[in-house]
């Protein structure tokens, strides 16, 4: 009797499982089974798909963009607020701060659109915006270098109207070229329909990033040449002053050394930030892990974070304007020395 009871109940288990499976396939509500049961995966399949996990590199780029936007927004506000900051030098610093501000906003928008509105079209627009912003930033750095060279080489005629026209022409050309570079991927020079032509920065093509890298290398070489000439002029001026005073004082040596060191820091910071990414864009392959692209792109964004410190916050006129802006009044006991564009 006991054995017959066991045999009569054994087929009931498969029948129950088949019935439950039929109910699940028909869309009926299945009973919730404890973890480890045969239908435990059916509960997960009925849930909506989980959102994409945040990439830590994207978070760091967004944080970097936020810091860049805040720093440069302050510089732009100070230059726009202070009527005294209208010389060609501050026009160039304002152009650099504006470009870096747009680059920071572009990094933030890229993060938001990537995780909130995932779309190839939006991604293309964001990448084009970033290309134009960073190109304008690098071009503004070149314009500042040219301005510093002219302020030393043509010191007597620097403050003429011709210099102002030259500066405005340089900025118009720099922003025009940067805008064209940003529009190229938007107007069709992308790899959305041909994945084999993609570069390490999707959706830019290999030929596109090669053009951008070649442009950067050219600008970097021009800046190196101009800064070498600036160093020669500074050393020559210091030597002439020493000859006029018939001896070389320690202050002349310290001033010359400080100027050359500052130029080396400016050029070294720019090269260390952008060179790894520019080189990787040329030699990298889209099949390489994306971590290589992130690891070279993130330091490049740091250049836009350092630019306000080098070109704006160290300037005495901007420091004075910050006192006026934040304190509402200028304390006379705090002395500021007006700096010329040739100061480095």
Strand portion: under 5%
Sheet of most strands: none
Global Rg: 30 Å
Q: Compute the number of helices.
A: 11
> Tally of extended strands?
0
Which regions are unreliable across 5 or more consecutive residues at pLDDT < 50? 1-17, 19-49, 330-342
Topology:
Layout: H1 2-9, H2 12-25, H3 40-45, H4 56-81, H5 88-115, H6 120-153, H7 161-186, H8 206-244, H9 250-283, H10 290-313, H11 316-327
Helix pairs in contact: 4-5, 4-10, 4-11, 5-6, 5-7, 5-10, 6-7, 6-8, 8-9, 9-10
Explain what this protein looks like in three dimensions.
This protein is mainly α and 344 residues long. The chain is built from 11 helices and no strands. It has helices spanning 2-9, 12-25, 40-45, 56-81, 88-115, 120-153, 161-186, 206-244, 250-283, 290-313, 316-327. Helix 4 (56-81) packs parallel to helix 10, helix 5 (88-115) runs parallel beside helix 7 (161-186) and helix 8 packs antiparallel against helix 9 (250-283). The longest helix has 39 residues, at 206-244. The radius of gyration is 30 Å and the shape is globular. The relative contact order is 0.11. The model is unreliable at 1-17, 19-49 and 330-342 (pLDDT under 50). Belongs to the G-protein coupled receptor 1 family. GO terms for molecular function: G protein-coupled receptor activity. It is found in: Cell membrane. Keywords: Cell membrane, G-protein coupled receptor, Glycoprotein, Lipoprotein, Membrane, Palmitate, Phosphoprotein, Receptor, Transducer, Transmembrane, Transmembrane helix. It is a multi-pass membrane protein.
